[in-house]
């Protein structure tokens, strides 16, 4: 009966890392598994599980079948801190005060230049003389995080508008979409070439074909403000076309003699023989065969970039001899 051996290198990874699954089967003609397209009886495949996963493989042969499994353990990361920082009144008149409130999860301490408190939650009163962005940074076992809040101070004359423009996903793959969101303070209207909406807050879906910078201008009693956001578009990688080379030796043989077929391939996942031989073949190797007449051997290999085929033939040179074509 077939015997299949399946192992992982390494067997324990951190979340986001990859492991290589390796397999080798004896007395088998083909193998199958849901995590690889290869049907070869030995090989390897890279996997990137997001959680601890058990992988199984079944190999079949003339004597039956065998199944084996291996578990890849995924160490989950310690959660990073998340900081919330808000202002009770994010827009105030000059001379007024507002209360900043903060709360941090998965954090052990916080620091800010506008409060002496290092607690992970609390509040503080601030009286900015001009529009101010307040920042807070918090540390925990999973790292550090920061957040900020903008307190707008209305100054005479009317304050200038402040425009915020963000992308939900600033980095996307080609063909994908992202949502642009904007908001403006002290503005009466906004304009942009990529949306017909002139409201001072809103959203729009965009599908750029290449990396694009989007701008928005908002106008108010105090003037105008423009902000921009860049959406980076990742172009798909070029997939190489597979190549296969099948050779035979010797070039001339007598009927009933043994020949050796040798082959190699690149950018392929699996190979299949046809013509005067058959069955799945490894992506490179050799095999000895006895021939008694004209034959043609063909090897077809599949890869992510398509299919490649190579053939060799022996033709009759006489009643007893065969020539390689």
Form type: elongated
Proportion of strand residues: over 45%
In N-to-C order, the SSE pattern is EEEEEEEEEEEEEEEEEEEEEEEEEEEEEE
In whole angstroms, the N-to-C terminal distance is 39 Å
Write down how many β-strands occur, each being a DSSP E stretch of 2 or more residues.
30
**Tally of separate helices:** 0
What is the topological layout?
Elements: E1 3-9, E2 12-14, E3 19-26, E4 30-32, E5 42-47, E6 53-61, E7 64-75, E8 82-87, E9 91-93, E10 98-105, E11 109-111, E12 121-126, E13 132-140, E14 143-154, E15 162-167, E16 171-173, E17 178-185, E18 189-191, E19 201-206, E20 212-220, E21 223-234, E22 243-249, E23 252-254, E24 257-266, E25 270-275, E26 279-281, E27 285-291, E28 295-303, E29 306-316, E30 321-324
Parallel strand pairs: 2-7, 9-14, 16-21
Antiparallel strand pairs: 1-3, 3-5, 4-6, 6-7, 8-10, 10-12, 11-13, 13-14, 15-17, 17-19, 18-20, 20-21, 22-24, 23-30, 24-27, 25-26, 25-28, 28-29, 29-30
């Amino acid at each position: 009966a077939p015997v299949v051996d399946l192992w992982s290198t390494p067997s324990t990874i951190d979340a986001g890392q990859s492991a290589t699954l390796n397999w080798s089967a004896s007395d088998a003609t083909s193998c199958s598994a849901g995590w690889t397209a290869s049907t070869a009886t030995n090989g390897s495949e890279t996997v990137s599980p997001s959680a601890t996963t058990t992988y199984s493989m079944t190999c079949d042969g003339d004597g039956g079948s065998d199944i084996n499994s291996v578990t890849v353990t995924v160490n989950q990361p310690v959660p990073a801190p998340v900081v919330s920082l808000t202002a009770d009144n994010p827009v105030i008149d000059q001379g007024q005060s507002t209360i900043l409130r903060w709360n941090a999860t998965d954090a052990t301490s916080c620091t800010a230049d506008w409060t002496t408190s290092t607690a992970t939650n609390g509040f503080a009163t601030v009286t900015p003389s001009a529009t101010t962005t307040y920042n807070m940074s918090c540390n925990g076992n999973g790292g550090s995080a920061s957040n900020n809040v903008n307190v707008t101070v209305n100054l005479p004359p009317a304050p200038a508008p402040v425009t915020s423009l963000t992308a939900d996903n600033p980095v996307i793959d080609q063909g994908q979409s992202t949502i642009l969101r904007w908001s403006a303070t002290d503005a009466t209207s906004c304009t942009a070439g990529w949306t017909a909406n002139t409201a001072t807050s809103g959203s729009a879906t965009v599908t750029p074909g290449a990396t694009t910078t989007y701008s928005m201008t908002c106008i108010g009693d105090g003037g105008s403000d423009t902000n921009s956001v860049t959406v980076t578009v990742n172009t798909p990688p070029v997939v190489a076309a597979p190549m296969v080379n099948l050779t035979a030796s010797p070039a001339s043989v007598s009927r009933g003699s043994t020949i050796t077929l040798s082959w190699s391939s690149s950018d392929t996942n699996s190979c299949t023989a046809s013509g005067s031989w058959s069955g799945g073949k490894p992506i490179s190797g050799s095999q000895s065969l006895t021939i008694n007449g004209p034959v043609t051997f063909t090897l077809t290999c599949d890869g992510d970039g398509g299919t490649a085929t190579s053939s060799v033939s022996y033709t009759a040179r006489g009643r007893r001899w065969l020539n390689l074509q």
